[in-house]
C-alpha cells in the first residue's frame, strides 16, 4: 500500500474496516436469529410434550398440525407404545439412562421430510418424545444469509465509494496547496499557500508552511543583500589593485613610483585577504562548533595581552574583569575572534579605558567613548552595516556581524548598548566557589582599580 495514493489508501483502509464491521454485524445477526428460533422451537416442544403427557397423542393433535410435528411414547427400555400417524415404529431416541429432558437434532424423518429437533422427556413410567420440523428455521436462516451475502458487498461498495469521496474532500486543501506551491517562484515574493477555513490539522500545516516560506524569503533576501554588499566591497579594492598595476606597467616610471605602486597594491591585496577571511568566518561560524571548557580569565587575558602594545602606543589601557572560576564552554578560536574584533573596534573608534569583562552568561567589551549612534543600533549586527552610512571608512562592516554569527553558533546572541557590546552565552558556569580574597590581595585590587581610574581621568 505504500506506493498507492493517500486517497486510495484511506479508501481501502476504510473499506477494510467496514468489511470487518459488516462481517461481525452479519455474524451477530445470524447467530442471534438462530438462537432466537431455537429458543422458540424448544419452548414449543416443551409445551407439546406437556400436551402429550396429559391428553395423549390424539388430544394434542388438534393443537399442532400433524405435518409440522410428531410424537412418540416410549417405555424406558425403548419400546414404542404410541406414535404419530405415519411415523415409523422405530424409536426416535434411545431413552435408556434418560434422567431429565434432553434436546437433540435428527436427520430427515418421515413424514415431515425435513430435519427435526427432538425433545425426550421422562413422564411417570414412560418417555415422551416430541419433535418439530426445522424447515422453517433453516429457511429463515437461509434467507437471512442470502440477504447478508447480497447486501453486505453492496453496502461495502457504497461505503468504499463514500470513503473515497470523503477522503478526496478532506485532501482537497492539500491538493490546492500543492498546486499553489508548484506555481510559487522566487521572482514573485509574498505569495502564500491557501489555508482552509476549518481550524484543523490541515490549517495548521498550511500556516506552518506559510511561516516557513516567509522565513525562506527573509533568508533569501538577506543572502541577496549579502551578495550585493560583498560584490560592492570587492569591487573597490580590485579596481584600485588593477589601477596600481596598470600604472606600474607604464613606461618611464621611476623606482620610487614603482615601489609606491607595489606598496599600494600590497595594501589592497591585504584588504582583499582580510575581507575574504571575514566572509569565511561569517559563512562557517554557523556550522557546529567544537565545545571545550575554557577559563574565562585565561580567554579574556589572552585577548587583552594581544592588544596591550597597541593600546600603549595610543595612551590607552586595557582592563580584564572576570569572576574567579568562571568557565566558558565553546570554541576558543571563534570566541577569541569575536573578542578580538570588539577590542579592535574599541581601540579604533572608542575612547579611554577598554574593559573586557565576563560574568555568568555574558562576555562583554566596553570603552569610555560615546558609543554607537542610536539610529545605528537596530542594524548594528547586519552584514556590511556601518555607522557612518557611507562605504568610505577603512573597515568592511563585518566586525559586529561576525560577533553575532559566532554568538549564535554557540546558542547565544549579541547586543550593543552605548559603548558596550555583550555576547550572551548559555554555557558559562562558575566551576568552583569563590574564595575570599586575603587582605593583601584586596589592597592590591583596590590600588589597581584606583590606578586605572586615574589614568582614564587623565586621558579625558
Note down, in words, how this protein is organized.
This protein is an alpha+beta fold. The chain has 3 domains: 6-140, Beta-Lactamase (2-Layer Sandwich), CATH 3.30.450; 201-283, Orthogonal Bundle (Helix Hairpins), CATH 1.10.287; 289-459, 2-Layer Sandwich (Heat Shock Protein 90). Helices cover 55% and strands 16% of the residues. The protein has a 5-stranded antiparallel sheet with strand order 2-1-5-4-3. Strand 4 (114-123) and strand 5 form a beta hairpin. Helix 3 (201-249) runs antiparallel to helix 4. The chain is rod-shaped and about 150 Å long. Residues 59-66, 389-393 and 432-460 have low confidence and may be disordered.
Per CATH, the superfamily of the largest domain is Histidine kinase-like ATPase, C-terminal domain
Query: How much β-strand is present in the residues?
Result: 15-25%
Structural class: alpha+beta
Count of separate structural domains: 3
User: What is the CA-based Rg, rounded?
Assistant: 50 Å
Q: Work out the helix count.
A: 8
In CATH, the architecture of the largest domain is 2-Layer Sandwich
Number of strands: 13
Helical content class? 40-55%
Order of helices and strands: HEEEEEHHHEHEEHEEHEEEH
CATH T-level fold name of the largest domain: Heat Shock Protein 90
- Largest sheet report: 5 strands, antiparallel
Summarize the structure.
With 460 residues, the chain is α+β, with helices and mostly antiparallel strands. The chain folds into 3 domains: 6-140, Beta-Lactamase; 201-283, Signal transduction histidine kinase, dimerisation/phosphotransfer (DHp) domain (Helix Hairpins); 289-459, Heat Shock Protein 90 (2-Layer Sandwich).
Amino acid at each position: 500500500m505504500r506506493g498507492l495514493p493517500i486517497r486510495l489508501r484511506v479508501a481501502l483502509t476504510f473499506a477494510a474496516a467496514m468489511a470487518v464491521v459488516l462481517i461481525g454485524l452479519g455474524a451477530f445477526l445470524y447467530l442471534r436469529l438462530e438462537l432466537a428460533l431455537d429458543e422458540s422451537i424448544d419452548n414449543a416442544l416443551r409445551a407439546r410434550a406437556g400436551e402429550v403427557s396429559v391428553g395423549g397423542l390424539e388430544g394434542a393433535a388438534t393443537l399442532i398440525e400433524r405435518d409440522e410435528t410428531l410424537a412418540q411414547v416410549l417405555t424406558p427400555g425403548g419400546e414404542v407404545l404410541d406414535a404419530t400417524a405415519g411415523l415409523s415404529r422405530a424409536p426416535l431416541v434411545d431413552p435408556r439412562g434418560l434422567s431429565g429432558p434432553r434436546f437433540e437434532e435428527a436427520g430427515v424423518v418421515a413424514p415431515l421430510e425435513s430435519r427435526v429437533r427432538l425433545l425426550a422427556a421422562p413422564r411417570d413410567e414412560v418417555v415422551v418424545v416430541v419433535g418439530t420440523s426445522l424447515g422453517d428455521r433453516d429457511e429463515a436462516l437461509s434467507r437471512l444469509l442470502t440477504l447478508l451475502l447480497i447486501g453486505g458487498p453492496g453496502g461495502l461498495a457504497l461505503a468504499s465509494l463514500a470513503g473515497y469521496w470523503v477522503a478526496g474532500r478532506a485532501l482537497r486543501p492539500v491538493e490546492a496547496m500543492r498546486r499553489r506551491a508548484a506555481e510559487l517562484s522566487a521572482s514573485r515574493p509574498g505569495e502564500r499557500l491557501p489555508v482552509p477555513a476549518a481550524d484543523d490539522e490541515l490549517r495548521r500545516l498550511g500556516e506552518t508552511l506559510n511561516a516557513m516560506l516567509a522565513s525562506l524569503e527573509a533568508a533569501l533576501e538577506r543572502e541577496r543583500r549579502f551578495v550585493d554588499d560583498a560584490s560592492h566591497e570587492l569591487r573597490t579594492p580590485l579596481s584600485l589593485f588593477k589601477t596600481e598595476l596598470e600604472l606600474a606597467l607604464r613606461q618611464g616610471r621611476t623606482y620610487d613610483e614603482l615601489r609606491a605602486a607595489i606598496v599600494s597594491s600590497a595594501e589592497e591585496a591585504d584588504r582583499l585577504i582580510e575581507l575574504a577571511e571575514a566572509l569565511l568566518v561569517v559563512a562557517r561560524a554557523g556550522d557546529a562548533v567544537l565545545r571545550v571548557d575554557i577559563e574565562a580569565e585565561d580567554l579574556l587575558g589572552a585577548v587583552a595581552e594581544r592588544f596591550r602594545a597597541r593600546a600603549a602606543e595610543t595612551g590607552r589601557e586595557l582592563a580584564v574583569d572576570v569572576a574567579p572560576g568562571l568557565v566558558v564552554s565553546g570554541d576558543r578560536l571563534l570566541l577569541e575572534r569575536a573578542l578580538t574584533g570588539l577590542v579592535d573596534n574599541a581601540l579604533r573608534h572608542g575612547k579611554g579605558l577598554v574593559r573586557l569583562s565576563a560574568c555568568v552568561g555574558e562576555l562583554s567589551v566596553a570603552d569610555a567613548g560615546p558609543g554607537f549612534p542610536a539610529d545605528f543600533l537596530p542594524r548594528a549586527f547586519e552584514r556590511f552595516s556601518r555607522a557612518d552610512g557611507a562605504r568610505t571608512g577603512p573597515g568592511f562592516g563585518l566586525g559586529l556581524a561576525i560577533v553575532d554569527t559566532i554568538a549564535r553558533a554557540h546558542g547565544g546572541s549579541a547586543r550593543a548598548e552605548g559603548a558596550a557590546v555583550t555576547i550572551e552565552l548559555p554555557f558559562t558556569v562558575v566551576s568552583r566557589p569563590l574564595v575570599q580574597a586575603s587582605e593583601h590581595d584586596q589592597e592590591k585590587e583596590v590600588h589597581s582599580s584606583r590606578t586605572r581610574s586615574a589614568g582614564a581621568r587623565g586621558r579625558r
